[in-house]
Structures are given as structure tokens and as C-alpha cells.
Design goal:
Elements (H helix, E strand, L loop, with lengths): L14 H34 L7
Amino acid sequence: MLRPPSGLHVVRLDEAVTALRNLIEHREDLVRTRTRAINRLHALLTKLVPACRAA
């Protein structure tokens, strides 16, 4: 087993940190899904209503 250099502490992840990372990852997935849906909706609307296109 490797020993940390002197003066450094070994960091251990506890359950709270693991849960927080899982929540952050889930939120990032939700944001990506929302962005993808908005972009698809925008693309469809610009095809259906050409006046919606940016000038």
C-alpha cells in the first residue's frame, strides 16, 4: 500500500459527498436533456413558422 508523503492527509469520501456528487450528476443530465428539448423545439418551430427565425 502506498503511503502519502509526510505532512499530507489521506482524504476519504463519506456518504454525504458521494450523495452530493450523484445529485450534481443527475442535475447535469437533466439540464442537458432540457437544453436538447429546447433546441429541438426551436428547430421545429423555425421550420413551421419561418417568421420565427432570427433576423
